[in-house]
Every structure is written in structure tokens, then in C-alpha cells.
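Final report, results section. Input specification for complex C-07:
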Amino acid sequence: MESSRRKFMASAGKFLILASAAVSDGEPSAPTTGTSGYDPAKHWWGMTIDIDKCIGCGNCVRACSRENSVPDGFYRTWVERYEVPAGEDENPHVESPDGAIHGFPPSPNTAAKRFFVPKLCNQCANSPCVQVCPVGATFVSPDGVVLVDESYCLGCRYCVQACPYGCRYIHPRKHTVDKCTLCYHRITQGLTTACCEACPTGARQLADLKNPADPVHEFLRTNKIQVLKPHMATHSKVFYRALDGAVR
Amino acid sequence: MLRRWKDARHLLPLAAVFLGGLTLFVAVRGALMPAEFGKYGHYRPGTLADVRARPVSFAGQAACADCHADKVEERSKGKHRIVSCEACHGALAKHAGDPAAVHPQKLGNTPLCQGCHQEDKAKPAGFPQVMPAEHSGGQACVSCHQPHAPKL
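Structure output:
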């Protein structure tokens, strides 16, 4: 009895050591970062949106959809049209037909305050979506963009519910979460985002907050600026100029 | 003193099992976790490269200006000076990549113009906007306006 237990212990120990050695051999070693001269530590991306310049043409929505192959019926960016009757700041009428991918039909001819509000992921520095992800599939990159690791995402939807701005959706084919990447594939090679490229009035501007030469600094200094839902303390990096208090 | 430790050797197999289990755990964790996980934070840093690998559709203003400097110059004098080429002409990275093989589509002008200039009370007051039926009676915009440098 004594000898058989000892034998078992010895063989079990050998097995464990051999098995772990075998597994260690298969460990992947290729580094996957560090491509072509872009240093994430030198950038901190955001965007500025000037409500007074937005004409609701939907060019940004179409460009985003095209650039990022956004599935039909889902939007990484969209435009809302607000109609605020006098004294009804708490009950604005908001519409965004198909995310404004085809623009808007003309407004009815009534006396009300009206304006367009383009929306997209706010690239929060203190993001609720990142905080709830149970597997480390979504994160704030070193240059301040909230990204999703599709190979890690379980599709659990915690982040979809956590986002105060409704900027996330489950991709109907991949069944993982999908969102605005601030055109990370473009901005890391010196291009602007697709929505900014296509905006005919310059209402949207990509902003690198770590670049002292970026016009964003003057824009933020010389205008009255607001972010969406400041009470959520998400440290949003999408800065709106001329944002009305009725906007939610 | 020695009497107290006389049975200590019974602990050795147990210690071996613990050590083996720990080694297995560390090895399996090492195998399952991607290389460099946690380098920047609680995520796989390779995701940055994965996201960057996506091809672009919009070539960008600089690429257009490389070949079409004349059009860019013409546009710089008119009211459309801040409108980028691809805002009207569409995503043309393929054309920029191989100009001989991929040609941009000719634009269908009037609906394109209306996309921005159709009157809407929600648009900024200073933005030029018209009711097309009243404004031109169905005539094409380009019969009066030159889209690259509209002066009228």
C-alpha cells in the first residue's frame, strides 16, 4: 500500500512537470505591436463638433459607414435633429431617421428652436464601457481611443448597456461588440477620420490634444464648450461648441 | 528536537504535488495569455495593430491635391474652399492607389447639391439654402453655378 502510494506520487509529479514543459514550448512569442513610426504615447485623440456649422446633410454617416463597413441599420456615428418648442427644454422632439444616412426631410414650418447634433463615441478617458468589460476586450488605448478586441469580446453586452451615449451595438454577423474607432486605422497614419474628411462645413474636426500645434487648443480656449452628459464624469473627449441644454 | 521532524519526510510528496500544480498553472496561463498582455493595460496590445490593419476608403485631401492641384487651386477661390474633394466625389482611395485603373463616377449634380443646400429651418441661418422648386423651377444647379468655385 505504502509503496503504491509513493509510486503514484512520484509518477504524478513527473507527469505534471513534463506536461507543463510541453505546454511552455508552445507559447507564442511573436510581438504584435510597434508598427511603422507611430508612437501612441505622443498623441491623445478627441474631436470637436461645432453645432453652429452642422447642416444635417448626413455625409459623415455615409462616410463612416463606407470607411468602416458598418452593417446596415447600425451606426457608429449619426446625426440627430432637435426641435425645441418655446419653454419645452425638458421635452425636445428628437429625430434621426436611419441615423440621417440619407439626410433629413425638411423641418415642418413651426416656430421652434431647431438644430442638428452629430453624435459618435465620446472616446471617454474614464469610460464606463471599459470599466464593465469582464474580459479586457475593450480598453482605452495609450493614445486615448476606446477600442474593442474582437478576438476577446464575448458579446455579453455589458458595455452596450453601460455606455451613457448609446454608441455601441452588437455586430449582427460577428456577434461581438462594435463601435466607432475614431478611424484608428486612418489617424495613426496621418489622415483625418472619414467623417471629418467628408464633412462639407468643417463642423467636425479631429483633435490631437497632446499636439501643441493642433488648432483644438485655440478652439477650446476661445469658445464656450460643453461635453455630453458631464454629470456622468466620463471625461468625454468629444467637445461641442454651441451645444444647447436640451441635448441629452 | 530530531524527534519532532522525524515524520517530516511525509510532507515532501505533498510539496511536490503543490509545486507541480503551480508549475502547470503558470505554464497554462502563459500559453493561453497572448504575448505582452498587460503591456499598456488590461488588454492585448496586439489589438492596436489589428485595428490599424484596416484598409482606408477615403484617400484624404493631400492625396487628391497631389495630382489635381489645378482643381484644388480653383476651389480655393470660391465658397467651397473648405469642402474636401471626397465630400462630393465620394471615397476614392482605390482611384488614388491606381488612377489609371479606377475612375471616379461622374456626379449626378442636382440631388448632390440639394443634399446640402435644400432649405431646412434647422440649418444655421447663414448657410446658403434654397427651395429648389421655387429657386430654379427644376433647372439643373450647374446650369448657373460652377460647383468647384460657386460665386453666385
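The first strand of chain A starts at residue 45 and ends at 50. Residues 20-34 of chain A have pLDDT under 50 and may be disordered. This concludes the modelling results for the funded period.
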